[in-house]
Write a sequence for this structure.
């Protein structure tokens, strides 16, 4: 008997641990194992019901709660949970009866009352149980609590409320009210020198020098190209040490020579803050840049920026916020720079200059410098607007802050890769209207259609026209057909189809996606041939030619959201990001490419806990953990009719519950990783119009939080 007691305790402990880890299906099996030892324990039946409900198995949950009530028939909480299971399953009347029974046992139970109110059946509760007064009082109390909560928010969180209320087009108002917070003190206060590479009118020079004087972390000195004789006296009045050095560098000197002169002029500086032209620094700029780099052991640091415009008697106005995520090696490789300002540690700067020299096109110097610096170590990003360009200088400066040295097109793969087979996996079910044009566009736009191993995974089609088309295509050799007649499980369907293919490259394509990019397969082969690339996604648009997907952003709409949704298909997006090949946290499974070896290394898609939603995001995060990049390539373009398959796969109550379960799995599995996207500036969340147009809460038919099937 003692051994049996020990066994049941161990079984329950294991099940509880799985429950706490939010592995609901595994936890349910654990409680079933415990009930096999002690089948009369109402608490274990209730836990089994909870796990089944959280896992989306509503009939199983109802059966478990009913069994629990056999042993504890007066447990109001079990009736409450039973009602919730019925509600999620779409059975309103049964849900109402369970909630009413819970209220019979515990009059005034607020959770049950709220559930009845949400059902819209409070009048039935009053008529059947006579607790209308209790209901009214409870609802009034809930309203009072809500009003009190709102008052508390208004009193305690005015900053958040105000920030989220300011549209980005009124950015100047934000800058007038909210200032950059003080940077944390830096141990030892390492000496910092400012090196200005380009020229500007005297007014901009003097404003720049004034801003240097106002820095909380004092600068050891400033170097800039030669001032004219009539400019020296005014400059000396603002910052004598800057004026003394200004004449030591010729105005026509190339950028590399100017930076080298700055290093030589300030041999004791540990950090050099380089700017492409005279700029307006925030008083906390040097402290933030150097402090963040020192704390994170980075070799360099950059920040967000904006533009200042002289506006007559109104003074300066701040416009055009340029907000960035962390340094993207993919963009650096295409010749992008990081804006107007870069703080670099002395040893790294000296080594970079040695590789660059003085020669070269001045317009490409900045991007080449960024590439050389980033090759030597980590480059930190400070998500604060620390520098402002003068509009009159920005319009004429040779070194535009976000200019590319020539944004590279997708390179052609080596000749032997053009012969590599590419497996294309397309799930469908009675989807002739979608899958036929999908396959036609796939073949018509491919440069080597003979190298496509097209496999259609049929999820139990019974439509005669679809079956006839599949049979004809298989008979003619245009594609293979693999069948899996099981409940809709996007992850399982794709995993099953991959096992039937042999090509080294894989493309997962929804049956409602039509490719429009000629030569897409050659471009895809070129990207997947790079060993550092793990996953490649495409630019997807709705049939009305508005964007549906320009990469994913984590931390919005519960877990993730498509960037650029609803904007014109050819819109550039902030800093051109929607039309730029770049690193992202995840891409949608509607067009999802990888090498077979990468697919195997992460175990394919998670068909157990993420059968439909977020399996693409989960896959991408696993790939990133292996040190590989996830790329968004806008030159791979397609029209996506979105959710044609998914909309018919589930009824709304089951669909919503399955979505919430998948979201809870992602949050439990990845934690902060799905709350903060490193490739998306956290600054932008402060404004009313973010980079991505978010879906309305609860909108599942056009939900961009994950794969749109």
């Amino acid at each position: 008997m003692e051994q049996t007691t020990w066994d049941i305790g161990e079984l329950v402990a294991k099940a509880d641990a799985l429950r706490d880890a939010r592995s609901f299906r595994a936890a349910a099996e654990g409680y079933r194992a415990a009930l096999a030892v002690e089948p009369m324990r109402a608490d274990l039946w209730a836990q089994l019901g909870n796990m089944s409900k959280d896992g989306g198995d509503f009939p199983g949950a109802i059966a478990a709660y009913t069994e629990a009530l056999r042993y504890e028939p007066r447990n109001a909480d079990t009736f409450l949970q039973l009602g919730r299971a019925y509600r999620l399953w779409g059975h309103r009347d049964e849900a109402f009866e369970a909630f009413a029974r819970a209220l019979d046992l515990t009059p005034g139970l607020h959770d049950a009352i709220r559930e009845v109110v949400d059902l819209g059946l409070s009048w039935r509760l009053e008529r059947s149980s006579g607790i209308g007064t209790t209901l009214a009082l409870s609802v009034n109390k809930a309203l009072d609590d809500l009003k009190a909560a709102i008052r508390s928010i208004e009193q305690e969180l005015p900053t958040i409320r105000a920030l989220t209320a300011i549209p980005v087009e009124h950015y100047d108002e934000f800058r007038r009210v909210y200032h950059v917070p003080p940077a944390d003190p830096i141990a030892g206060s390492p000496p910092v020198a400012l090196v200005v590479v380009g020229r500007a009118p005297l007014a901009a020079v003097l404003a720049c020098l004034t801003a240097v004087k106002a820095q909380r972390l004092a600068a050891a000195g400033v170097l800039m190209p030669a001032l004219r004789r009539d400019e020296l006296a005014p400059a000396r009045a603002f910052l004598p040490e800057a004026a003394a050095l200004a004449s030591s560098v010729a105005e026509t000197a190339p950028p590399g020579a100017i930076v080298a002169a700055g290093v030589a002029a300030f041999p004791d500086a540990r950090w050099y803050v380089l700017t492409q032209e005279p700029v307006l620094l925030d008083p906390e700029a040097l402290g933030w840049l150097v402090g963040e780099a020192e704390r994170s052991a980075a070799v360099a640091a950059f920040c967000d920026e904006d533009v200042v415009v002289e506006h007559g008697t109104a003074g300066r106005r701040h416009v055009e916020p340029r907000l960035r995520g962390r340094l993207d090696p993919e963009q650096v490789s295409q010749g992008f720079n990081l804006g107007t300002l870069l703080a670099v540690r002395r040893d790294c700067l000296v080594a970079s200059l040695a590789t660059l020299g003085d020669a070269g096109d001045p317009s490409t110097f900045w991007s080449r410098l960024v590439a050389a610096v980033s090759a030597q170590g980590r480059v930190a990003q400070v998500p604060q607007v620390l520098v402002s360009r003068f509009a009159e200088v920005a319009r004429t400066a040779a070194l535009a802050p976000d200019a590319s040295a020539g944004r590279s097109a997708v390179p052609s793969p080596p000749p032997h890769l053009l012969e590599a087979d590419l497996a294309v996996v397309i799930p469908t079910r009675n989807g002739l209207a979608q899958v036929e044009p999908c396959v036609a566009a796939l073949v018509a736009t491919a440069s080597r259609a003979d190298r496509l191993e097209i496999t259609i995974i049929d999820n139990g089609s019974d439509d005669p026209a679809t079956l006839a088309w599949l049979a004809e295509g298989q008979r003619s050799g245009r594609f293979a057909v693999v069948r899996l007649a099981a409940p809709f499980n996007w992850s399982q369907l794709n995993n099953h189809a991959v096992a039937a293919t042999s090509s080294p490259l894989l493309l997962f394509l929804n049956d409602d996606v039509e490719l429009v990019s000629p030569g897409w397969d050659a471009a895809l082969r070129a990207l997947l041939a790079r060993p550092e690339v793990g996953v490649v996604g495409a630019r997807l648009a709705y049939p009305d030619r508005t964007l549906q997907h320009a990469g994913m952003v984590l931390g919005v709409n519960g877990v993730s959201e498509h960037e650029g949704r609803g904007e014109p298909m050819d819109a550039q997006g902030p800093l051109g990001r929607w039309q730029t090949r770049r690193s992202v946290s995840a891409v949608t499974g509607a067009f999802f490419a990888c090498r077979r070896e990468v697919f195997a290394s992460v175990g394919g898609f998670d068909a157990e806990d993420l059968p439909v939603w977020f399996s693409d995001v989960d896959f991408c995060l696993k790939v990133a953990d292996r040190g590989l990049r996830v790329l968004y390539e806008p030159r791979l373009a397609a029209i996506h009719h979105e959710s044609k398959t998914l909309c018919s796969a589930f009824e709304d109550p089951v669909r919503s519950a399955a979505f919430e379960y998948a979201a809870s799995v992602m949050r439990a599995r990845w934690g902060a990783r799905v709350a903060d996207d490193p490739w998306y500036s956290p600054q932008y969340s402060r404004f009313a119009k973010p980079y991505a147009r978010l879906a309305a809460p609860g909108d599942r038919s056009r939900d961009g939080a994950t794969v749109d099937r």
Notes: The domain at 415-686 is CATH 3.90.550.10 (Spore Coat Polysaccharide Biosynthesis Protein SpsA; Chain A).
